[in-house]
Amino acid sequence: MANMLLVLLHIFLTFVLTQSAPQDSLVTNLPGFNGSLNSNHYAGYVTVDESHGRNLYYYFVESESNPSKDPVVLWLNGGPGCSSLDGFVFEHGPFNFEKPATKGALPNLQLNPYSWSKVSNIIYLDSPAGVGFSYSKNVSDYKTGDIQTAYDSHNFLLKWFELYPEFQANPLFLSGESYAGVYVPTLANQIVIGIENGTKPTLNFKGYMVGNPVTDDLIDGNALVPFAHGMSLISNELFENTTKVCKGNFYEVDTDECELLLEKVDKEVADLNVYDILEPCYHPGKTKENKNTNSKLPLSFRELGKTDKSLPVRKRMFGRAWPYKGNVKDGIVPSWPELTSTSILVPCTDDGVANSWLNNPDVRKAIHTVEESVVGAWYLCTDQIKYTHDTGSMLNFHKNLTSKGYRVLAYSGDHDMCVPYTGTETWTKLVGVKIVDEWRPWFSNDQVAGYTQGYSNNLTYLTIKGSGHTVPEYKPRESLDFYKRFLDGVPI
Q1: How far apart are the first and last CA of the chain?
Q2: Known catalytic residue at 469
Q3: 442, 482 Cβ separation under 8 angstroms
Q4: Out of 83, 134, 175, 178, which one is annotated catalytic?
Q5: Do the Cβ atoms of 71 and 117 come closer than 8 Å?
Q6: Alpha helices, DSSP H, located in 197-255
Q7: Containing H/E element for 68?
Q8: What is the pTM of this model?
């Protein structure tokens, strides 16, 4: 009798889950993938402003484990102006995308053993409007900033949970990287204000993760020179002279002598891959990697920066050169170099696989995007939006949120020169009340995967050894390990 009741309960819960989610958003097939999906996928739009017709696109992957209980995680890529489908295609989505042998053919999709959907439900959100597949019928909406973006993303979540009410009781986390170091804490703050004001539905918000995150102009701006010195990219003499002349301030330059020394630092590191100093830089039309098999270097040296991903790790800028001096004036984020009227050329980038798949008409139909006449082609990053950084430093956001008990993880690939770990390590110390877990290695697959330090009020700082700017892309196994431990609330 007891077994029969359990069977009936399972059937009931399955029925509820199936019936609650909007069936017209269900993804039933994905061109390039042959096989059965490990969980349900949904995709579509949420209108966050009816009067303007402002619509945010999402792709939702149910957990492959226990979707009715596992956390719901919102993922945001940075820019500002870059699509969060980057995370889906290249980082921790349910598939690995393999470059086709025939030019013009669709990429082949294989199941990703390190997908974050192994342990969580995950929403990939294109934000703000004008990015990826998100759009507005009022082009004035493409002039936006941190405050409006956080408001819209909060509105998205409220409406999304109304569409998917079966997930309202699940723990909610936010996660993102690079400029999402601004998106995430500002959205978290908006969520908490809503909870405290009794906004419905009540979001079961628990905390957030930020990877190689843009945080504070001065701290991020001062991070590159110590990073370059610590990685032996500049000499002791240049480091000491620059530090002395600039008085330790490499961001707010006030003398010509300091400016000249910083220009010399920039020149020394200019030919490196800013997203991972171990990796070569991809140049379109040229060979991606050194094919010299006669190298006398040990194999371990030749495989520095190697990833388990089926595609070579791409190189691109999501931080908009934030670590460098003088990049933001009056809060306006500088424009990207133009590639076309709606796309941008991101240095060292090879995003052909994502472009060919996401711009395929059959794919776009399968994942429920609007017609191309409405939203245009998909680009990794766009210059269609004019974005203002109007919230300042994130330090007070982090202090406020951790003081309320929300769980926070700041993680850094330790070979990223775009938003270096030296900045993240600095600001976590400023936010942290006191150290409760002293600096130590953490392990994945029985190997040291990086180092961590824990603070009171549920703040954790973490490095990932040998990783670049987009950590799950470089270190998928290690990323899934720390991601699961963070969501479970256990020490990393």
Answers
A1: 42
A2: yes
A3: yes
A4: 178
A5: no
A6: 217-221, 224-230, 236-245
A7: none
A8: 0.87
